[in-house]
Amino acid sequence: MKSFFLATYLAVKEVIRNKGRFLLVALVIALITLLVLFIAALGEGLANGNRQYVANLDAQLVVFLEKSDYSISASRLDTNTVKSVRRVDGVADAGPIYTSNTEIVSLPEPLKVSLLGAEAGRPGMPPILEGRAFRGGEAREAVMDRNVALRSNLQIGDMIQIRSTQGTNDEFFDLEIVGLVDGQSYFFQPTIFVPAATWEKIRPQSEAELASDTPYPNIVAVKLVDPAQTDAMSVRLVDKVPNIEVADIATTINTIPGYSAQQGTVQTQGVFTLLIGILVIGGFFQIQILQKVPQIGVLKAIGSSNAVVGLSAVIQIIVVTALGVGIGGTMTYLFSLGFPPTIPLVFNGTRSLFAVILLLLIGPFGGMVSIIYAVRIEPLKALRLG
Q1: pLDDT reported for residue 385
Q2: Residue range(s) defining the domain that contains residue 330
Q3: Are 105 and 167 in the same domain?
């Protein structure tokens, strides 16, 4: 315990006496912390923007068209598929999901949104946060994601106008906002939900599609009686319903175009940033040790043990690293308050905490070489008496 207090005194005393030098390296660590936390938040934000709607489905399985490779955009199911899925033993409920894109043009700045068709009260339609669900049939009513409201200042009861390319012509449709949902971003775009018949009427269509008024779902969200039986129910659905393939939610998310590659890229950036931090911290403290070789030699000559010298170096590294991480975390929080909602930054508590722990660990790890060197210094050689 005496050695610990002595090592702590020596480490803190040196930091205070050379506060300018140590503050400089703490600021470098703060910038690295800022970069790491923003990369983590960007990765989470991009992932949410891509997977949020699928991840929040009130379902355990997703039905695709056979040989569509679990691609939502490539899947287009027969209209009777939903009824067939509902009749399978073990299925609690199933809801068709229709996907497309559109643009709200009644705003000062046009806003691109995902246009999703669903059935109210069925899997695929998220719970209503405010207002009410839309009516069925061709009701010109819509439920919008809260992100649309944040970007456009739209409220329940407002009318919006969307532009849709029908064949070779642009047509405009009016919709009344009747409800709000939360956390339903799809393919990086905020979402509006409409009834299936309305979706078929107002979605962008080619000339060949204009002759049909039948909406064909892209996928079917399946809610199970026993959510633990996903594997068995996947096999049963494929056996009972023709021309389909079935995936769980995790598989569906991982097969979203670009999702895995995007997350791999962001994670690689984070790893390289941490490696840069290790090199910066290691290089700084190695120079520090080289500059105070004579002082370490004096300490050892008057009886200080290797444990005191090594522990002092470790405590010094931890103090400076913690100071830098604290400054960087505060800077990250202050910067995040000024970012608009259009920038996909999501500070996930678990992910951010994990990043902070890694940043605190890279200090001692990066300074390991300097610690080993300090312990091995010979007093006589350090004082040039050997």
Answers
A1: 57
A2: 2-51+260-382
A3: yes
Task: Round to whole Å and give the CA distance between 57 and 60.
Answer: 8
Q: Kindly state whether residues 308 and 187 are assigned to the same domain.
A: no
The token duo for 193 is: 């939900």
Tokens of 206: 């080619």
Q: What is the CA radius of gyration of the chain?
A: 30
Q: Number of structural domains, the chain?
A: 2
Look at residues 180, 213, 242 and tell me which one is the last residue of a structural domain. Answer: 242
The model's pLDDT over 301-343, given as tens digits with 9 standing for 90+, comes to 776 677 777 788 788 888 888 898 899 888 888 887 777 766 7
Residue 200, classified by CB atoms within 10 Å of its CB into exposed (0-12), middle (13-18) or buried (19+), is: buried
Supply the angle between the helices 306-337 and 349-366 in degrees, to the nearest 10. 150
**Cα-Cα-Cα-Cα dihedral of 299, 302, 305, 311, to 10°?**
-30
Beta bridge partners of 219: 97
Task: Determine the Cα angle at 56 with ends 214 and 77, to 5°.
Answer: 25
Task: Spell out where the chain has E strands.
Answer: 61-65, 91-104, 111-117, 130-131, 141-145, 159-166, 169-181, 191-194, 219-224, 244-248
Residue at 251 is within a domain: no
Task: State the pTM of this model.
Answer: 0.75
State whether 25 and 109 are in the same domain: no
Decide if 154 contacts 146 (C-beta within 8 A): no
